[in-house]
Specification:
The protein is an alpha/beta fold. It has 3 domains: 78 residues, Arc Repressor Mutant, subunit A (Orthogonal Bundle), CATH 1.10.10.10; 83 residues, Periplasmic binding protein-like II (D-Maltodextrin-Binding Protein, domain 2); 106 residues, D-Maltodextrin-Binding Protein, domain 2 (3-Layer(aba) Sandwich), CATH 3.40.190.10. Strands 4-3-5-12-6 form a 5-stranded mixed β-sheet. It has a 5-stranded mixed β-sheet with strand order 9-8-10-7-11. Strand 8, helix 9 and strand 9 form a beta-alpha-beta unit. Helix 1 packs across helix 3, helix 1 packs across helix 4 and helix 2 packs across helix 3. It is elongated, with a radius of gyration of 24 Å.
């Protein structure tokens, strides 16, 4: 099929049709009339030799061909759009938005100073944060996300990134915890204590300590996980008023345990855990985008400063 025979404007109609699964909603999103969108759908059906949208009851469903197109189309449109993005980036005049995945710790403890600077330097920049989970790698591929700060063991070939630093794990507990008097500064907790005590865990922002549970499984045991909450600060507030153990990455523990008056110690030595790896990641299609480069370089600098403070500071118990 010759490209010159195809009206490339139909790609935008296809995007809105597949996203909304509605001719009326797609027309509204594309700012055209409903009859015009209906004609575009008819042209697309002829061009692709597929109905694309079929009615099932009161809803329109995507055909298998349409599902396949939807997996490719956002990234393709982003690449086409990048052809017209100027190489020179001016933050003060920029008008655009980015979707960023991060944890609640980063959005509450790390990024606020940076976001305040963004408001001054790039007032037309819109940022939308989402709570990170590992399934969001596909969001980067499909264009639903533009940047993510997360923990990864390794990066897929189509994902670019920068390793910010490495970390260990810490176990946090209240000064009133029965074990508090038995734990010496910077000494690991005994394995029998770690598995016998009740634990609280953070369910939001990705599984930060899955390696801990995997290591326990290899030893033929497991934690007594009795409570999960979605946010880190919730877990810390509860830990400060209870006898739960809370296991977190060392950076988070270092930053927040003084605020809640918590004690901390290393995890049992038998677990033999590999370091955590912090990354800032994005999809390959955005590698050369000047606006994205400016955004990620500023985020990277902020994250590196926090990591450097953690590395330089003494351990707290």
């Amino acid at each position: 099929m010759e490209l010159s025979r195809i009206n490339l404007n139909l790609l935008l109609s296809l995007y809105h049709l597949l996203r909304t699964r509605s001719v009326t909603a797609a027309a509204n999103a594309a700012h055209i009339t409903q009859p015009a969108m209906s004609r575009n759908l008819s042209l697309l059906r002829d061009l692709l030799a597929d109905p694309l949208l079929v009615r099932t009851g009161n809803q329109m469903q995507l055909t298998p061909r349409a599902e396949s197109l939807w997996q490719q189309l956002p990234g393709l449109l982003n690449q086409l759009e990048s052809l017209f993005v100027p190489d020179h980036f001016e933050p003060a005049s920029y008008q655009g938005q980015f979707n960023i995945a991060a944890t609640d710790f980063l959005t509450q403890q790390v990024f606020p100073p940076l976001l305040a600077r963004f408001q001054q330097q790039a007032p037309g920049l819109q940022l939308h944060f989402h709570l990170w989970h590992p399934g969001m790698l596909d969001g980067l591929r499909q264009g639903r996300l533009d940047l993510a700060a997360c923990i990864q063991e390794q990066l897929p070939d189509d994902i670019y990134g920068y390793e910010i630093g490495q970390d260990d794990y810490r176990c946090l507990f209240s000064p009133s915890h029965p074990l508090a008097a038995e734990l010496a500064a910077d000494q690991p907790m005994a394995l029998e204590h770690y598995i016998q005590q009740p634990h609280i865990a953070v369910s939001g922002g990705g599984d930060k300590i899955s390696a801990v549970d995997e290591a326990l499984t290899l030893l033929g045991t497991q934690r007594r996980l009795q409570l999960t909450v979605p946010f880190i600060h919730s877990a810390l507030a509860i830990t400060a008023r209870s006898h739960y153990l809370l296991t977190l990455p060392g950076l988070i523990a270092h930053q927040l345990q003084p605020q809640y008056g918590l004690y901390s110690c290393h995890l049992p030595a038998q677990l033999a855990l590999s370091p955590l790896h912090y990354f800032l990641i994005w999809h390959t299609r955005l590698e050369h985008d000047p606006a994205h480069r400016w955004l990620r370089e500023n985020c990277l600098t902020q994250l590196q400063q926090v990591q450097a403070c953690r590395t330089a500071a003494p351990s707290q118990t």
